[in-house]
Amino acid sequence: MRRYIEWEKYPERKALARSLLRTHKFSLPPACIPEFQLAPLPTTNPVLIGHRWKEYHNALGLGEIVDFSWHTVLREKKDIIHLLDFPYNGETRRDQLMQGKLTDNKYHFIRNHGGVPNIDAAAYELEIGGLVNKPVKLTLAELQDPSKFPQEEVTVTIQCSGTRRIEQIGQYPGDGDELINAPWGEGAIGTAVYHGVSLKKVLKIACSGVQPECAHLEFIGADTYFKKGDVFNYAVSVPLRKVRATGGEEVLLAWEMNGKPLPQIHGYPLRLVVAGYIGARSCKWVTRINALAEPSMGPVQRQEYLYYSFQTGKQNAEYSNGFSIQAMPVSSAIIFPEEKQIVVHSGTIEVKGWAYSGGGNWIERVEVSPDGGHAWYETHQDEMTEKHYHAWRLWTIKLPVDAEGWIELCVRAWDSANNTQPTFVRSAWNWDLHVTSSAHRIKIYSINTSRSETRRRIALMKEHGIESFEPLTRPLPFALEDEKKYLETVRRYPREPTS
Ligand SMILES: Nc1nc2c(c(=O)[nH]1)N[C@H]1C(S)=C(S)[C@@H](COP(=O)(O)O)O[C@H]1N2
Ligand SMILES: [Mo]
Question: Domain 329-499 maps to which CATH number in 3.20.20.140, 2.40.50.140, 2.60.40.650, 3.30.70.2210?
């Protein structure tokens, strides 16, 4: 059964949907009340519930897409953090993120703008049209035939431009967007080996190239997207020069992920993988490619993924006064230890995380600071995963830490073009809350057992049967000092001046 609609092919269906949507009242856009940016996030899983998007689908008689999507989540993504149930947004957990250079398909994050389409691969055809010399329809079997198109395998990190958005929200709330700008932590990033064919070569071989006016390629997905009372398919575009870059391996049509068929939720049977660009351009469930003279007019390309200046916001934002985010900048995150963790150590703390840069730049150096960004320690190359043109590097460092109590750990990466990260979240805060690329900072509580007083306290705690400092805020049940020691000390160093 077909469970998706190619809206862009049927203007009369779009018009009908618009008039149907006008006759309904829908829940407010944020997926929880009160507005989630203005209050702590619920601790439930799913964290947020997408009432409005379900109502939109139901109003058009597409309720089974909602069910199919959730069943797909339960089948393919059971163990990740369900940030928003529909459209499904799921975040990779910390331990899953750090398991290795390649992210297991079942743990790779998911960002959806609509329901998961149910496409019959045997009946599937990719249409390529617009400003090409020869419009074509290609079946999956044709695309997968190595005698027609040479096959490629590329290791690619896909990062959502909303990664680490929660830090921007924590400082200053911003645009909620109708779908919601999901409150991602550090796990909206993942890496896989994608197998497929280069779009550059498909355009050349199957379409005899593009016409001289062509400057952008638009990708249309089979999922249904809603914006301001109208209905669309997911559509984005990338410049032709990106498609043509190097040998063409930066823009792939992929059907395999880490040696397995593309999971349903990652775009089965065929998706774009645009290396080095924000995840949004890697269109899943692609059914049509249009060669255009200008960027796509679809709302995701034209009205979203815009980078506004600090003084642009609800009072003055327009689609044309923010720039379109395409290539990813260099960024990084500390994954272990975690924010507000108590770390008991003997002078060095093992810190782990990821670092990534887009645009074909790779990570050269990762530096970690134990004091909020004054002194920096460099990670050793042996403690980083290998370099790839289009993938992250996971890193580990044994960080020297003498200080106790609350300290701020901070990471910054340098890429092959010598770019590094803004210092503070505020340095790069923007109204649509994209690309939180500032140095990642976490507060931890340091307990250094190389200090004799600290060892004495731990021994005393043990005598009282207390094994741990958790929770930090709970007082110790015994006196911190006996009277004899107290008096000895305050008599040697009187509390008041003696004359
Ligand atoms: N058709 C379609 N493609 C899409 C999206 C979508 O909602 N629909 N989301 C995009 C966004 S914003 C991101 S970050 C990536 C995420 O890819 P993944 O879900 O495979 O991890 O897919 C992109 N491709
Ligand atoms: Mo994204």
Answer: 2.60.40.650
